[in-house]
Amino acid sequence: MIKAFITTVILLSTFFCSAQRAFCPPTVTDAEGNIYNTVLIGNQCWIAENMNVGIMIPGTTNQIDNGILEKHCYGDNPSNCNIYGGLYQWNEMMQYSQQLGAQGICPAGWQIPAFDDWQWLATILVENNGGKIKTTGTIEAGTGLWYAPNTLATNSSGFSALPGGWKDGAGNFTGAFARLAGKYPLLMTGNGLPLF
């Protein structure tokens, strides 16, 4: 079973995917040929990078069920998708499925993780403000993508969580980098429940 990591607000997300299996391939490829590193944590294999798949649309335009995988990039800047991954509205990320364990926009054979999957991950990794899953360094020092202080970040798990940002219901990215990107990952689950 494979799952996906999500940072979101208003159900707009960047995310990873994961799987419950003993073997974890070193990389996985999405539908567009993008290659992502993976990490085995316990018996779950997680994509260790934010997903960045789909066609960028303006932040003022909602993603719709039109057969085209759509994404937003923070501030409508494509380079932010390259750094932080795409931002996906809930239904787009789930590919309009209401089923737990749906593949969503994950690569073939992977799925969006459910609340229980995140809870399991949190019990072993999310301490010290998520330090074991967060990348190291700070924006101020020019060594990372998180705002200071990021002193507890070790990324000892190899999960490499980044602060992807958010957009509000009006399509504004206002406050996302000030609040989320560089500060707080907000993780959402495959059944729509926030993790932290």
What does this structure look like?
- This protein has one domain.
- It contains four helices and ten strands.
- It has helices at residues 78-84, 90-93, 115-125, 176-179, and strands at residues 3-4, 7-9, 12-14, 17-20, 27-29, 35-41, 44-47, 55-56, 70-71, 88-89.
- The chain has 196 residues and is of the alpha+beta class.
- 44% of the residues are buried.
- Residues 1-13 and 175-190 have low confidence and may be disordered.
Q: Can you lay out the helices and strands and say which pair or pack?
A:
Layout: E1 3-4, E2 7-9, E3 12-14, E4 17-20, E5 27-29, E6 35-41, E7 44-47, E8 55-56, E9 70-71, H1 78-84, E10 88-89, H2 90-93, H3 115-125, H4 176-179
Parallel strand pairs: 8-9
Antiparallel strand pairs: 1-4, 2-3, 3-10, 4-7, 5-6, 6-7
* Largest beta-sheet details: 5 strands, antiparallel
Oligomer: single chain
Number of domains: 1
Mean pLDDT: 77
β-strand number: 10
Tally of alpha and pi helices: 4
- The largest beta-sheet arranges its strands as 1-4-7-6-5
Query: What share of residues are in beta strands?
Result: 15-25%
Terminal residue distance = 23 Å
Order of helices and strands: EEEEEEEEEHEHHH
Helix % is 10-25%
- Structural class of the helices, strands and pairings? alpha+beta
Low-pLDDT ranges:
1-13, 175-190
Outline, from the CA principal axes? globular
